[in-house]
């Protein structure tokens, strides 16, 4: 049986992206993004929950995220959920779930961006200008 691993989130970037390079020279960028959910309890109390995700982007997408994202920006992330484990300095085994991004859309304009720059762009696939031709729509 074939599996399916896909996650889609929209949230606010919580840390400035950190870009580094693998020993083979491939760029990799990681950043944290928060999503929030508001709800009302049966007693009428309003609550808000925030979930934090670590996002990892590779290659050209890593460079775009590093260039256009910053703390406070709103972004859409599409990717797959990955789990990692490692030994901490204290000898304890640590676990982390992270999103390996294959597409990131920048949903707002950051300070200093020109018109159209960063709008809907920043994808690892397809037209990165954010323009969608009417013939490409599935309906």
What descriptors fit this protein?
139 residues; mainly beta; five-stranded mixed barrel
How would you describe this protein?
It is a single chain. By secondary structure, this protein is mainly beta. It has one domain: Nucleic acid-binding proteins (OB fold (Dihydrolipoamide Acetyltransferase, E2P), Beta Barrel). The chain is built from one helix and six strands. The chain has one helix at 59-68, and strands at residues 7-13, 18-21, 27-40, 46-58, 74-87, 93-106. It has a five-stranded mixed barrel. It is globular and about 55 Å long. Residues 114-132 have low confidence and may be disordered.
Low-confidence stretches: 114-132
Principal-axis shape? globular
Structural class: mainly beta
Q: CATH superfamily name? A: Nucleic acid-binding proteins
In short:
The protein is mainly beta and 139 residues long. It has one helix spanning 59-68; strands at residues 7-13, 18-21, 27-40, 46-58, 74-87, 93-106.
Please outline the helices and strands.
Layout: E1 7-13, E2 18-21, E3 27-40, E4 46-58, H1 59-68, E5 74-87, E6 93-106
Parallel strand pairs: 4-6
Antiparallel strand pairs: 1-3, 1-5, 2-3, 3-4, 5-6
